Amino acid sequence: MSRPINELARPSILEIKPYFPGKPIEEVERELGLTDVIKLASNENPLGPSPQAVAAIKKAAEKVNFYPDSNCFYLKENLAKHLGIDPGMLIIGNGSDELLKLIAEAFLNEGEEVICGNPSFSEYDFVTQIMAGKMIQIPLQNLTYDLRSIADRITPSTKLIFICNPNNPTGTIVTYQEVEEFMKRVPDDVLVIFDEAYYEYVTDPEFPDSLKYIHQGRRVIVLRTFSKIYGLAGLRVGYGIATPDIIDCLMRVREPFNVNSIAQAGALAGLADQVWIKQAKEVNTQGRDYLYRELTAMDLEYAPTQGNFIFINVKTDGVEVGQRMMRAGVIVRPGNIFGYPEYIRVTIGTKEQNERFIKVLRQVLTELKG
Ligand SMILES: *Cc1c(COP(=O)(O)O)cnc(C)c1O
Q1: Phi, psi (rounded to 5 degrees) for 212
Q2: How far apart are CA 251 and CA 103, in angstroms?
Q3: Using CB atoms within 10 A as the burial measure, which of 60, 73, 157, 220 is most buried?
Q4: How far apart are CA 88 and CA 243, in angstroms?
């Protein structure tokens, strides 16, 4: 008799909880017999990618017989110029998700501790478990990362600290001052990762300049992505910024062709179209302010957001609200998956999408609460 397959797997992978992605539009339309469904569940750019990125993607398709540039030379060069840094301080990944995994693979030994906030981005837990690290989750305070409690929890076993800023799913930020005090308390043998997937949406002047710590030579990795404001989530391109010695460690564990050629071309063209990015930010800021006004008028509380999504207290079962909204053709994320059963997370859409979201939310809450 052979042993059950679970006994052959590495024990740490059996603990991994499945990821629950936002339901795709086509799936909801198929299952519920709907048309005209809108998805406000995965923080995608409702304006889509830059038309220049789409043109570059089409052009790149003609050359897919060739392997991609393993070094992402042009993308790194242009990103470096955009950021005012040296290309040697960059690594490009198959989404920043891949970079999170590379960080754990390069630096995390079995049993070492990883700290992050809770609720926060679920990938931190995922990559920690794959490498059999020990995850320490520090509860948010007022739906915001609690950097003091995180610093208090550092031990000689701590290796990585993930700071999601703005935080997904709450949209809140830690400020320049909070990060400054925190960084004074972090020992040099601990790597701090600032996950700034929503960086380009931020409007608050208190937001920290995390690159400053890299320029100071600190063990800091900053992650950003083309998936959110650039509207290229389907291409899978993210990037990490750090000192060259850290980048070198990450490059060692990367697959040689981790970023495909179409993705490199699309990201390069998307980066060049900063007019598109500026417009996406404006639409988001206006949509955010509209939703704030409407939610306040409905007597609902929400976390102040610096991203393209809002975490809303619906004061009733968020799963039920999510299901009813889905039947009305609006996909949102229920808060129970983040440990907040009376919340929903909604992506800020176009003006029309936001108006439809509010209309449907009003209807559903009236049904449920009378
Ligand atoms: C969306 C998101 C990412 C993932 O980005 P990809 O580049 O698409 O892998 C990373 N971190 C946070 C906090 C996110 O919300």
Answers
A1: -55, -40
A2: 10
A3: 220
A4: 8
334 Cβ contact partners less than 8 Å away, ≥ 6 residues apart: 318, 319, 321, 322, 341, 343, 344
Shortest-distance Cα residue to atom 15 of ligand 1? 168
Which atom in ligand 1 lies closest to the alpha carbon of residue 227?
8
Strand order, beta sheet including 309-313: 301-302, 309-313, 343-347, 333-334
pLDDT digits (tens, 9 = 90+) for 94-135: 999 999 999 999 999 999 999 999 999 999 999 999 999 999
- Pick the atom of ligand 1 nearest to 225's CA: 7
For residue 182, which of 151, 208, 158, 218 has the smallest C-alpha distance? 151
Domain layout of the chain by residue ranges: 22-48+275-369, 51-272
Residues with a CB atom less than 6 Å from ligand 1: 43, 95-97, 121, 164, 168, 195, 197, 225, 227, 233, 238
Kindly give the distance from the C-alpha atom of residue 231 to the centroid of ligand 1, in angstroms, as a whole number. Answer: 12
Q: Which fold has domain 22-48+275-369?
A: Aspartate Aminotransferase, domain 1 (3.90.1150)
Candidates 284, 235, 280; CA nearest to 260 is: 235
Token readout for 18 is 């499945």
Ligand 1 centroid – CA 198 distance (Å): 8
Orientation angle between helical segments 351-369 and 318-327, nearest 10 degrees = 120
pLDDT tens-digit map of 45-104: 999 999 999 999 999 999 999 999 999 999 999 999 999 999 999 999 999 999 999 999
Residue 96 Cα to ligand 1 middle (Å)? 6
Cα-to-centroid distance, 365 and ligand 1 (Å): 30
Strand-pairing partners, residue 311, are: 345
Substitution candidate for ligand 1 out of 118, 227, 239, 348 with most atoms within 8 A of CB = 227
Architecture of domain 51-272: 3-Layer(aba) Sandwich (3.40)
